[in-house]
Amino acid sequence: MNYRHHYHAGNFADVMKHVFLVAIVRALQEKPKGLLLLDTHAGRGDYDLAAAAAGDSRPRQPEHPLGIGLLAARAEAPGEAAPPPAVREYLRLVRAHAPGGERYPGSPQLLARLARPQDRLFLCELQPDEFAALRRGLGRRPQVSVQPVDGYTSLRSVLPPPERRGMILIDPPFEALEEWQRLRDALTQGVNRFPSGTFVIWHPVTARADADRLGDDLAAQPGPPAWSCRLLVAPEAEGMRGCGLIIINPPWTFMPEAPQILKALGRLLRRNQLGETQSRWLRRES
To answer: Fewer CB within 10 Å: N-end or C-end of the chain?
Structure first.
């Protein structure tokens, strides 16, 4: 697999994923008991934005200016309505990671900053160089386990956690042709093993993506509540038009603010006055 996330670090898809991650974790932390925070495709956790733009052999157009750069500029513009608390905390966490803005924290670093002493992180990364960087960055912390394993297998080996509470982030690269089927199979196993867990699945929105089928499959089957949302920043683009999240067992205190977060991201990240947001319940609480 050739995917390297550092080319895309801090883009609009990272922003959406990470803002919602902050909101979900904080909602789960309203109860004092510890959580498992499992990241199945963690990456290196820390990205040099200048190096990412340079690419391997030729300069690349950086993606972060239309992601974290655009969000920060618009959210703090004079006269702009105050963004939701999750957006403000996300910006604070990104700046705490690199005050100069030269680096961007991946989901492992954000989860580490969000974690309380009673919370536990389990981070999976299969690519050797990404794993080595992740271990250098977070592997010495007592509450963090960094493992060089296929994250899908962790849904069998780690779940259910002894804490009996947790959030599982599934964010694969969607580079392999069989990725969607692997995701479906692993998600079914994970939810069967840990039916009360909060599962957060990120996916791209492209002409060829299979996200609609996954959502329809979930909607047609019995199971825990599931909510879907999408951010489309370039609806007419040939490539990635946007991205989305499917959240199984969304925390009940998160749901009242979720539409406001999505609406704010749509406003702050749209390009040339284009873009839209979508959301729907795939399964409601029975």
So the answer is: C
